[in-house]
């Protein structure tokens, strides 16, 4: 049985591996990423923060997935004053297709609601139809398209 819980500092080694998994998966979609080893997050700070919730999925005492929600201030012209931003969605390849990401997102939704937040946002690469489909399954809809052009 797969369960979710808040990440703990002792989860840091596996979460750092997951971060590299996210980065390696995203490299083909983003030619602007540096070639050397990079880091997206300060996971230790995220785990300790009151404004961020890092959730892990666990099966048989093994951490198999992750995700986070971060509370953010928004532009003053929006109807809401804060929203939650989701990221760090990762599931070990051997556990994909089993609804792990959905369980993580549902746990994040619970935390977000407990903070009084009603709007949730995330980013996904346009060339990643698998991720887009997975997020649509849990109720997300496209809002904006972020475009880029290199002038090299």
Structural class call reads alpha+beta
User: What is the level-2 CATH architecture name?
Assistant: 3-Layer(aba) Sandwich
SSE order: EHHEEEHEH
* Structural domain tally: 1
* Apparent shape: globular
> How are the strands of the largest sheet arranged?
1-2-3-4-5
Would you report the number of β strands?
A: 5
Question: Main sheet?
Answer: 5 strands, mixed
Helix content: 25-40%
CATH class: Alpha Beta
Q: In angstroms, what is the radius of gyration?
A: 16 Å
Write up this protein.
The mean pLDDT is 96. By secondary structure, this protein is α+β, with helices and mostly antiparallel strands. The protein has a single domain (2-123), classed as 3-Layer(aba) Sandwich (Aminopeptidase). The longest helix is centred in the N-terminal third of the chain and has 15 residues, at 12-26. The chain has helices at residues 12-26, 43-48, 100-114, 129-137; strands spanning 2-6, 52-59, 62-73, 82-91, 120-122. It is built from 4 helices and 5 strands. The protein has a 5-stranded mixed beta sheet with strand order 1-2-3-4-5, sandwiched between helices.
């Amino acid at each position: 049985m797969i369960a979710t819980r808040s990440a703990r500092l002792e989860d840091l080694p596996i979460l750092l591996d997951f971060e590299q998994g996210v980065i390696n998966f995203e490299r083909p979609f983003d030619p602007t990423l540096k070639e050397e080893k990079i880091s997206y997050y300060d996971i230790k700070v995220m785990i300790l923060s009151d404004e961020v919730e890092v959730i892990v999925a666990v099966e048989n005492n093994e951490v198999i997935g992750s995700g986070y929600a971060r509370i953010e201030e928004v532009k003053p012209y929006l109807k809401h004053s804060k929203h939650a931003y989701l990221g760090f969605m990762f599931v070990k390849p051997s556990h994909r297709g089993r609804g792990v990401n959905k369980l993580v997102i549902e746990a994040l939704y619970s935390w977000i609601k407990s903070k009084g937040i009603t709007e949730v946002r995330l980013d996904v690469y346009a060339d990643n139809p698998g991720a887009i489909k997975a997020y649509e399954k849990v109720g997300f809809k496209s809002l904006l398209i972020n475009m880029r052009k290199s002038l090299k």
